[in-house]
């Protein structure tokens, strides 16, 4: 399975990358970075560090440091720490390993070179994808599918995390996300509706630390910071495995229940970043959805299978 991983590492991004590195069926073509959990210099440094640490051969390509409307505002450091990886010690990493060029150009070139074969998993703000689409709208016809971690559609009472209405990856660049949903490619959204079913407890991390070698221990260390955030701010006894679940969808879509319909993102006002789907089964509605392709959102997941598969894979 040919894959581009678009990411803002990020503790749960690191969890997803380690998962990818252990899956022989994945042909990772590139890791593209974006501002989000930290600024672009930090998320790119983290991607280079994780690539080296996890023994990944795919190149890292630096992406957008600003949203489409020119704002460069990372998420608060309370979530992923000042260094984006839970403030563990990170050795100096050489930028010589960075592949020259921009993420958006890499996405365009890779899709065009592999028509119909490449999946993009995007687990940060969708700025790189939107820039690629603006530059070359025809690439939508070249992608196999785009799997997004982002959004919240009200299933299981799940609304936003960065605000009561919006999930962080969408809220970080709502215009970009809206353009991704409007484009004519197959998008699957793995949002808070399902990611909040994937809770990694301290016992679970202890098992990873004991059974998944040095990198299992590294994830356990990073997760301390993340777990404090979830407990203090969200009242959850464990860490939510947002980004790794987008990888699971690629492997095992049969573990998910989905709903089809066009999606719109609210791009201004108090609910900015809110994601709203009009189910295809319903007729009529607001003209905002008219002319948009039906996309899939995940509304339920077999969480036990996911957690078991992740642990076994690592
Ligand atoms: C998403 O926001 C980021 O903090 C995480 O890495 C994840 O991609 C969850 O809302
Ligand atoms: Ca992320």
UniProtKB/TrEMBL annotation:
GO MF annotation, one: hydrolase activity
Source organism's superkingdom? Bacteria
Record flagged with keyword Hydrolase: yes
Q: Which residue ranges does the record assign to the Inosine/uridine-preferring nucleoside hydrolase domain?
A: 3-306
A Pfam cross-reference name: IU_nuc_hydro
Which keywords appear in this protein's UniProt record, sorted alphabetically?
Answer: Glycosidase, Hydrolase
The protein depicted here goes by the name Nucleoside hydrolase
Q: What organism is this sequence from? A: Devosia psychrophila
């Amino acid at each position: 399975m040919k894959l581009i991983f678009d990411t803002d590492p990020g503790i749960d991004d690191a969890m997803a990358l380690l998962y990818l590195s252990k899956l022989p069926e994945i042909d990772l073509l590139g890791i593209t970075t974006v501002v989000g959990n930290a600024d672009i210099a930090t998320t790119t440094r983290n991607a280079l560090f994780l690539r080296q640490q996890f023994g990944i051969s795919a190149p890292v390509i630096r992406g957008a440091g600003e949203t489409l409307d020119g704002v460069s505002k990372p998420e608060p450091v309370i979530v992923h720490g000042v260094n984006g990886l839970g403030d563990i010690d990170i050795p100096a990493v050489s930028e010589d390993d960075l592949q020259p060029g921009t993420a958006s150009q890499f996405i365009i070139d890779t899709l065009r070179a592999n028509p119909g074969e490449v999946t993009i998993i995007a687990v940060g703000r969708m700025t790189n994808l939107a820039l690629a689409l603006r530059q070359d709208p025809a690439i939508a016809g070249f992608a196999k599918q785009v799997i997004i971690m982002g959004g919240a559609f009200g299933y299981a009472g799940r609304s936003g995390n960065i605000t009561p209405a919006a999930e962080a990856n969408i809220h970080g660049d709502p215009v970009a996300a809206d353009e991704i949903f409007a484009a004519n490619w197959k998008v699957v959204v793995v949002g808070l509706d399902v990611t909040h079913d994937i809770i990694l407890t301290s016992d679970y991390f202890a098992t990873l630390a004991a059974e998944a070698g040095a990198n299992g221990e590294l994830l356990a260390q990073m997760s301390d910071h993340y777990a404090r955030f979830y407990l203090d701010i969200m009242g959850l006894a464990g860490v939510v495995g947002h980004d790794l679940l987008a990888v699971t969808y690629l492997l095992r879509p049969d573990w998910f229940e989905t709903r089809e319909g066009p999606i719109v993102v609210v791009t201004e006002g108090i609910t900015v970043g809110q994601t709203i789907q009009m189910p295809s089964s319903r007729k009529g509605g607001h003209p905002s959805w008219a002319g948009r392709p039906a996309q899939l959102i995940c509304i339920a997941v077999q969480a036990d299978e996911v957690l078991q598969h992740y642990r076994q894979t690592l």
